[in-house]
Amino acid sequence: MIKRLLIRLVRVVSLALVSLALVSLTYAQDLTPVTFTLDWAIQGPQAFFLLAEEQGYFEEEGIDITIDRGFGSSGTVSQIAGGAYDIGFADINSMIEFNANNPEQALTAVAVVYNFPPFAIFTLAESGIDDPAELVGNTLGAPVFDAAFRLFPLFAEAEGIDPDGVEWIAMDGALREPSLIRGEVEGISGFYFTAILNLEAAGVSRDDVNSFLYSDSGVDVYGNAIMAPTRYIEENPDVISGMLTALTRAWQDTLADPEAAIAAVQAADPLIEPEVELARLQLAIDTNMITPEVRELGFGAVDEARLARSIEQVVEIFDLPMTPSVDDVFNGSFLPPLEDRLPPSE
Questions:
Q1: All domains of the chain, ordered by start, with CATH?
Q2: How would you class 163 by CB atoms within 10 Å of its CB: exposed for 0-12, middle for 13-18, buried for 19 or more?
Q3: How far apart are CA 228 and CA 185, in angstroms?
Q4: What's the pLDDT score for residue 73?
Q5: What are phi and psi for residue 80, nearest 5 degrees?
Q6: 42 — pLDDT class (breaks 50, 70, 90)
Q7: How far apart are CA 322 and CA 260, in angstroms?
Q8: 112 vs 244: CA distance, rounded Å
Q9: pLDDT at 16
Q10: Is 70 exceeded by the pLDDT of residue 208?
Q11: Residue 116 contacts by C-beta under 8 Å, 6 or more apart in sequence?
Q12: Could you say which of 1, 75, 133, 325 has the lowest number of CB atoms within 10 Å?
């Protein structure tokens, strides 16, 4: 009797497991696979991408996402355009430059994340370079795909200095801050929240670092955006809409509980230092993500007049063969409703 019951129980459990496997397989087949690349290493400011994945927000929107780290915005733009990734996160100005030179592979931004650009130049106080004009005649280092390096001519124009008066040395991103500390270069370019905290982690006090932010010099361009090939967007509108819905939810979650968002970052990369990345995330939120414009227009949106001016700046600085329109550069029609995208009240 007992033996029969056990056999019957095994059959029931086996049938349940088979049914569960079939349901899971059917569910997986219903999801659209999407490959996504970040602009840089997995760090605090990218937390909401990873939080959206961890919380299953992408799956709820029918997306089976794969998120990889990047190695600089220019490289990220090229990889998306070349088909290595479906969608990505990169500097919108690098995208504008790429599109003008490669119109047949054009990308379109669908949401701006860094409303204020995080581009900056850094020197050590001991160098005596206390003003951007004093950069002339000195050597700076940066990865070749670094957006702040690529857009240095904009900063130089705003400061009234000759961009060719600075010598650049190309280097791996991991060597950037160590090279500055060792005195191998007099300055470096990078994202403010990346370099300043990397220097602090290496034992350099923030008081001993001179930071020249492009936005402080009047460079009024946007920063990083979520982007995809224009053709991909046209062919996959539900994917774009679903992704932005998922990311908007995770963005709100990140603002409400940054520590939980950093836990998602650590789950993706156990080698991070949570305290450092939490500080990096908060710095990005305070200086790049939550701005007066975002409080009015919400996460992801742009002021069209401002974007038009920034396009003209990029075209002029890089002597591009064409001037894209605002509609060529940005499509905000896939963003969730404004009430879902507004940050919490101050």
A1: 31-116+222-341 (3.40.190.10), 119-217 (3.40.190.10)
A2: middle
A3: 36
A4: 86
A5: -65, -45
A6: very high
A7: 44
A8: 11
A9: 46
A10: yes
A11: 215, 223, 287, 288, 291
A12: 1
Give me 270's structure tokens. Answer: 């156990």
pLDDT recorded at residue 68: 97
Tell me which residue has tokens 């990096």. Answer: 280
DSSP 3-state assignment of 186? Answer: coil
Q: Which residues contact 237 (CB under 8 A, 6 or more apart)?
A: 334
Nearest to 90 by CA among 105, 109, 103: 109
Q: How confident is the model at residue 102, as a pLDDT?
A: 95
Closest to 110 (Cα-Cα) out of 286, 336, 338? 336
CB 139 within 8 A of CB 169: yes
Beta-strand (E) ranges in the chain? Answer: 32-37, 63-68, 87-91, 107-112, 119-124, 139-142, 167-170, 187-191, 209-213, 224-229
Mean pLDDT of the chain: 92
pLDDT of residue 29: 62
The helix/strand/coil state of 336 is coil
**Cα distance between residue 153 and residue 93, in whole Å:** 12
69-79 residue pLDDT tens = 998 888 999 99
- pTM, full prediction: 0.86
| Confidence band of 4 (pLDDT split at 50, 70, 90) | low
Q: What is the DSSP letter of 321?
A: S
pLDDT band at 345 (very low <50, low <70, confident <90, very high): confident
Angle between helices 304-318 and 92-101 (to 10 degrees): 60
Which residue's structure tokens are 């396009």? Answer: 311
Q: Which amino acid makes up residue 116?
A: F
CA distance 44 to 1: 60
Q: Which residues does 46 contact at the CB level (< 8 Å), separation at least 6?
A: 38, 39, 40, 89, 265
Question: HSE-up of 226 (CA within 13 Å, CB side)?
Answer: 28
Classify burial at 230, counting beta carbons within 10 Å of its beta carbon; exposed 0-12, middle 13-18, buried 19 or more.
middle
